[in-house]
Predict the 3D structure of the following.
Amino acid sequence: MNIGIFSSTQDTTIDGFVAEARQAERDGFHSYWMSQIFGPDALTALAVVGREVPRIELGTSVVPTYPRHPMMLAQQALTTNAASGGRLCLGIGLSHQVVIEGMLGMSFDKPVRHMREYLSILMPLIEDRKVSFAGETLTAHAGIQVSGAEKCGVVVAALGAQMLKLAAAKTDGTLTWCTGPQTLQTHIVPTINAAADELGRPKPRVIAALPVCVTKDASGARERAAQVFTVYGQLPSYRAMLDHEGVGGPADIAVVGSSSEVTERIRALADIGVTDFAAVEFGANPDETAATRAAVKECLSAR
């Protein structure tokens, strides 16, 4: 199982991202991930990071699809991949109805149809640089040229069965957030793997991201996780995964405890079919931050 690190977003300058990624690479991590929420543009930042930090995989988790036509996103992704020497994993996702409709004023109707049509344009452009597709809501008859760009990896933030099957059919896999180990073992991993097997496709990547904190005050850390990550317990897609896990909220799936407890829980994910783990570190002070990074680094030996 490959081990990666999420951007902490504590320093959202480009120099801050470069420094974080450089440290993650020095620490031996396989990947460095950036979210696309309400801060800097992840692909732009990763293009710069890729020029400065030479080896680590760079991933987006995730770029929302609705605001960008798939042809535009293909151009951006291929350009970032060229800038980073072919190290980009493009993670994309639907975002959430409250964002797409409530904030952006766009339709969130039939999200599975949307993603299917989106990938029907995005993937041919990523793979062959040309596409001819007309769907109900998305159309593209065009080609693109991005010199020096190789095909980049693509994964979909898929949680429901239909989206997981779509990810298996058209992309390299899925990435999850706020999805606990039991749900990964009984739902995510078997659903996407079975869909890939049925289609004769390669085994998909399953990239799991969870909050992580090494601490002497586990109850305090969980209380803090409940506050920091509270919104994810209210969004329908994540709420469904938390309900599947049988827990009350994000704090209940946070990887919290002593160094040995944290490393044991992370390493156990490999046994249930997770191919990549991405740690979202949330230490409350410098000691917890350092201890958390040390514990996640320890998992590299079992990669």
Summary: The chain has a mean pLDDT of 96. The chain has two domains: 1-157, 171-303.
